[in-house]
Amino acid sequence: MGWTVRDIPDLKGRTAVVTGANSGLGYVASLELARRGALVVLACRSQQRGQAALERLLGEVPEARAELRLLDLADLASVRAFAGDWGERPLDLLINNAGLMAIPFARTADGFETQFGVNHLGHFALTGLLSRHLLATPGARVVVVSSLAHWMSNIDLRDLNSERRYRSWTAYARSKSANLLFTHELARRLRGHDVLAAAVHPGYASTELQTKGPQMAGSSAGERAAKALNRLIGAPPEVGATPLLYAATAPSVAPDSFTGPSVLGARTLRGGPGGPWRAAWTRNDAMSERLWAASEELTGIRFTIP
């Protein structure tokens, strides 16, 4: 039998931040980390939805140590405020989970194409602003949630914001390739430091991610189709979150690894987390360096990695 959440070690004394923690994979990850004793910070965009998730978590695990903090990854001012309010607390685990998939063209508060801005730049900025806390905490980890959909398209460094031509699925795939390139470059820069950077994908997990795009596009037919597909082949969030929790806590996780279901099947994750196929371009050193430099330029944020 493969790795399961029962294998998560005792996490008392550890502090974790989970973005997009109000639902889906983020909520399940927060719940299981809190169940093992970690202090979990639910980083959510909505006060109402975040508070509801916090109350639900405390209802399921009354002894949990958890708190809600607002974070809008589509607004760098919000990212800076979140990091600025962190103070001098330790940070053992940062899970960059929140994301959007195949939505109509829109821009973030800072003018970035929304999928690239939220899925990559927002998390890049958050990680950079919290990097000194991670570096000061022995055994800290950064886990980035990507997707197998990254294979649909590499990034286009000449058009990171998809301004020449916007196709929602291509933009999503590029943002997920950016997640893997970011993880690759972060892992390279962390060599010699006691901080691990790894990436994951959940397989096909049934969450709000699939229905958000049709909802934003005003397509009731698309929303119905997404819900039907979720029921037909989607795995429950508890299953989809397993690779994420493995990368966050298992002792055997390697830097720059990409963990997902070892066997992809309808509504299941057989054999526990494994190493899925990964596009070669996501390990390209030159590309990851150029994306890193572009991300620093766009966000105005530099990492404090000696």
TrEMBL record:
Please provide an example of a Pfam family that matches this protein in its UniProt record. Answer: adh_short
Point out the coiled-coil segments of this chain: none
Could you tell me the superkingdom of the organism this chain comes from? Bacteria
List GO molecular-function terms, semicolon-separated.
oxidoreductase activity
**Alphabetical keyword list:** Oxidoreductase
Query: Which InterPro entries does its entry note?
Result: NAD(P)-bd_dom_sf, SDR_fam
What NCBIfam families does UniProt report for this protein, alphabetically? PRK06197.1
Q: What PANTHER family does the annotation carry?
A: PHOSPHATIDYLINOSITOL-GLYCAN BIOSYNTHESIS CLASS F PROTEIN, PHOSPHATIDYLINOSITOL-GLYCAN BIOSYNTHESIS CLASS F PROTEIN-RELATED
Family label: Belongs to the short-chain dehydrogenases/reductases (SDR) family.
Protein's recorded name: SDR family NAD(P)-dependent oxidoreductase
Q: Which organism is it from?
A: Streptomyces hainanensis
Organismal lineage: Bacteria, Bacillati, Actinomycetota, Actinomycetes, Kitasatosporales
